[in-house]
Amino acid sequence: MSTHRGDAAPHIGTLASGATGTIADVSGVRVGHCTLDAGDVQTGVTVVMPHARDLFREKVPASACVINGFGKSIGLMQLEELGVLETPIALTNTFGVGALAQAQIRAAIAANPQIGRGLPTVNPLVFECNDGYLNDIQALAVTEEHYLAACSAVSADFARGSIGAGRGMSSFDLKGGIGTASRAVRTAGTQYTVGALVLANFGRLPMLTIDGVSLGRELAARAASSRATQEPEKGSIIMLIATDAPLDSRQLRRVSMRAAAGLARTGSVYGHGSGDISMAFSTAYTMAHDAPIHALPPLLADSQLDPLFQASADCVEQAILDALWRASTVQGRDGHVRQALREAAPDFANLLEGGART
Fold first, then answer.
1. Distance set, CA 31 to CA 24, 154, 207, 241, 299 (Å)
2. Phi/psi at 185 (nearest 5 deg)?
3. What is the pLDDT of residues 37-66, one digit of tens each?
4. Are 161 and 323 in contact (CB under 8 A)?
5. Which residues are marked as active site?
6. Recorded GO terms, molecular function (predicted)?
7. Which of 100, 342, 95, 91 is nearest to 237 (CA)?
8. Contact 194, 27 (CB under 8 A)
9. pLDDT digits (tens, 9 = 90+) for 207-228
């Protein structure tokens, strides 16, 4: 059951948040943004760094799950095969993927000049959503400069909502964007943290469900004259899960799959035109690039993963709400507007308390 205090979004579920309620509660994780806000250009870049060192040299275990594959991400094939991250995770719009992949390659070569020569090539990892309703995506506005700016801005204290890669994103016919959450869990006698960051760009308004309440039906009734609420789902979401629990890539894939449960709770049915991708990584250990043997710490047994599964689902659901809650109204391409949730529903708290639960 949700609780609602002051200006904070309602807390979803029974697990407690971490200290800040963001993915940065997982030790070492930092997030940076670069936002492009210039008339018809409403887009940007967001990067997530698992640690502050050279990821090519000190890789972290990771895995991904493609829930619905209507997307143009890069790097997923090698991530699935090798189970490691070797660049920061980059988020942007669909047509910015190539520019960011090249930026990641250049940055990795600058740090390791033998990449592609005496060393293997590097696997760039870029995820995308289509922000073309608000952003002139054909302008190809995202460049290497914006990736580097986002990397330079990484911090444990970062903005959410209509920022970075989330600037032009839409959710439930409202303003979407960047959202985050964290949960503290205890398993096998040890306390761990799970955090999530989402790039939310999915959903039709009547689908919107918050903490089991079909809030979108009421909002759609108020906007009954809008054709947009009748169009099919064509959006996308990227869900990044971080944890300090010692897991291998196989276990991390299992954790990433539970993001789909949190996504479904908000009303998504993973529509035909939706690119829904989740990825999980662990900061519990690193794997040196040139080590002949990787000495892993003791890993959690599979039978101890249920608390992490619950936290993954809860974090994603909370992070989607956070994206809606933190977003501001944006006007972009051809005068298109996406209204912020709290402007569309100034009586949000009353609607939530009085709404019918699904």
1. 8, 5, 30, 13, 27
2. -135, 160
3. 999 999 999 999 999 999 999 999 999 999
4. yes
5. 236, 274, 276
6. aminopeptidase activity
7. 91
8. no
9. 999 999 999 998 998 876 555 5
